[in-house]
Amino acid sequence: MVHEEEVIGKAYDSRLMKRLLKYAKPYWKTFVISILLLMILTAIDLARPYLVKVAIDDYIFTNPLVSFELGAEELNNYPGVEFRGKYYVKEKYLPESYKDYPRYLIESYDEGYFLVPVNFAGESIPLSRADYLTFRQLDIDGLTKLAIIFVLIVFFGFGLNYIQVYLLHKTGQKIIYNLREEIFSHLQKMSLSFLIKTQ
């Protein structure tokens, strides 16, 4: 038991590591590239849940819609939907100065879809299925773009991961080959009597 603990305690030998590092030194560029690839892969891993968050918060869950009268100059600056003489823009696209404008939420009930007032007293506006899809078209377009970006990121990450693993494995095999070649050359220089004694 004591012997096993001593072996475990000596598992890391700094002098041995220094001797081994000289075999890795010629391939330092490959290791730098592998580290850079690892950093990019980490960023990709963090980007995937962020894209899911954006999809849920900005496109799947309905955001309040700010109502404008048609003809307002500010309408040219923001994407929105024209419906029954008014223009509706998502709250997230607007600056804080528009906080007092009428707001609506799209709600789904057994009777169908409705535009429900949020910050003022008023009647809910019924929506047909076509109207509902018109209001959600910007969300559908946004989700489509996010899905494409997500898939591209997954494939890009897969490709980078393959390259990193390939580079490390290939470099490792080269280091092992050089080490074996050096050992073999060293043994060839030993005297015949030494080789006989060590059989």
TrEMBL record:
InterPro entries: ABC1_TM_dom, ABC1_TM_sf. Residues 32-199 form the ABC transmembrane type-1 domain. GO terms for cellular component: plasma membrane. PROSITE patterns: ABC_TM1F. SUPFAM superfamilies: ABC transporter transmembrane region. Keywords: Membrane, Transmembrane, Transmembrane helix. The chain crosses the membrane at residues 27-44, 146-168. Gene3D superfamilies: ABC transporter type 1, transmembrane domain. It is found in: Cell membrane. The keyword Transmembrane helix applies. It is a multi-pass membrane protein. The keyword NAD does not apply. One of its GO terms (molecular function) is ATP binding. Pfam families: ABC_membrane. This is ABC transporter transmembrane region. It comes from Anaerobranca californiensis DSM 14826.
